[in-house]
Amino acid sequence: MSRNSKTLMNRQYYLDAVLLPQGWARGAVVTVSEAGRIARIEIAPPPLVAVPPPGAERIGGYVVPGMPNAHSHAFQRAMVGAAEYRQSKQDSFWSWREAMYGLANRIQPEELLVVATQLFVEMLKAGYTSVAEFHYLHRQANGAPYAGNNALWEAIGEAASIAGIGLTFLPTLYQTGDFGDKPLKKDQARFALEAEDFVRLIGERVQADRRRGSGTQRTGAAFHSLRAVPISTLAAVAKELAGINPALPVHIHVAEQLREVNACRRANGKRPIELLLKTGLINAHWCLVHATHSTVKELQGIAAAGATVCVSVSTEANLGDGAFDAARFLDMQGHLCIGSDSQVTVNPAEELRWMEYQQRLRRKRRAVLATDTEPHVGTRLWRDAAIHGAQAIGQPVGAIAAGRRADWLVLDPHHPSLAGAAADAALDHLLFAGGHAAIRDVMVAGRWVVRHRHHDAEAALGEKFANLMSRILHPQAPMHPQVTPEN
Ligand SMILES: [Zn+2]
Question: pTM of this prediction?
Answer without folding.
Answer: 0.95
